Amino acid sequence: MNESTNISQPQIYVERTLAIIKPDAVARAVEIEDIIIRAGFSILQRRQVQLTPEQASDFYSEHFGKKIFSSLVEYMSNGPIICLLLARNQAINMWDELIGPSNTFKAQEICPDSIRAVYGQDELQNAVHGSENQICAEREIRFFFPETILEPIITGQSAKDYLAKTVNPTLLKGLTQLSKLKPADPVGWLAEWLQNNNPNKPKINIIKAPLNPT
């Protein structure tokens, strides 16, 4: 008799990280973004900005006191940059591998196909920025995309289980009502129904004080 053993699959989380296309590489942004997408990343948000020296100083505050700090602030505030919110499994490590070492010359030597090796110019003008770790990624994402929610995104079986437990029952009720009523605007009707019948909608209990307290 053969017995099958169910081995639970590990949860896979879609990690997010920040990428910056620096002033020296903005003209090649289309090419760089194409490389990013072909590497399996999703670009969730994109924003072109020009930092003031004060904003650049704030963003690179961890480098304060280093010899490169003043040059870095001047360089990053000298022209527009493109900020990208990237997502994929192990996004931080995969982005770090894709861009290569921070020194362009070292990148050209040991990672000749990396973004910095191809598009960078030197140690300072190295085409792109990447978050070093999870803590840095969260801080840097909030710096440029303050409205972003950073909870991990589940995928695979974990996502299916979540949908089956928390989303599908409510959606099924709404679709059942939709098929019975057949409204003229089914999409708008369903959207309003889901908003009104969201089981996770906070409930506020209002306690009325007595009119004539004694």
TrEMBL record:
<dbReference type="GO" id="GO:0006241">
    <property type="term" value="P:CTP biosynthetic process"/>
</dbReference>
<dbReference type="InterPro" id="IPR007858">
    <property type="entry name" value="Dpy-30_motif"/>
</dbReference>
<dbReference type="GO" id="GO:0006183">
    <property type="term" value="P:GTP biosynthetic process"/>
</dbReference>
<dbReference type="InterPro" id="IPR036850">
    <property type="entry name" value="NDK-like_dom_sf"/>
</dbReference>
<dbReference type="GO" id="GO:1902176">
    <property type="term" value="P:negative regulation of oxidative stress-induced intrinsic apoptotic signaling pathway"/>
</dbReference>
<dbReference type="GO" id="GO:0016787">
    <property type="term" value="F:hydrolase activity"/>
</dbReference>
<dbReference type="InterPro" id="IPR001564">
    <property type="entry name" value="Nucleoside_diP_kinase"/>
</dbReference>
<dbReference type="InterPro" id="IPR034907">
    <property type="entry name" value="NDK-like_dom"/>
</dbReference>
<dbReference type="GO" id="GO:0006228">
    <property type="term" value="P:UTP biosynthetic process"/>
</dbReference>
<protein>
    <recommendedName>
        <fullName>Nucleoside diphosphate kinase homolog 5</fullName>
    </recommendedName>
</protein>
<dbReference type="Pfam" id="PF05186">
    <property type="entry name" value="Dpy-30"/>
</dbReference>
<keyword id="KW-0217">Developmental protein</keyword>
<dbReference type="GO" id="GO:0005929">
    <property type="term" value="C:cilium"/>
</dbReference>
<keyword id="KW-0966">Cell projection</keyword>
<keyword id="KW-0378">Hydrolase</keyword>
<dbReference type="GO" id="GO:0004550">
    <property type="term" value="F:nucleoside diphosphate kinase activity"/>
</dbReference>
<comment type="similarity">
    <text>Belongs to the NDK family.</text>
</comment>
<feature type="domain" description="Nucleoside diphosphate kinase-like">
    <location>
        <begin position="14"/>
        <end position="152"/>
    </location>
</feature>
<dbReference type="GO" id="GO:0003341">
    <property type="term" value="P:cilium movement"/>
</dbReference>
<dbReference type="Pfam" id="PF00334">
    <property type="entry name" value="NDK"/>
</dbReference>
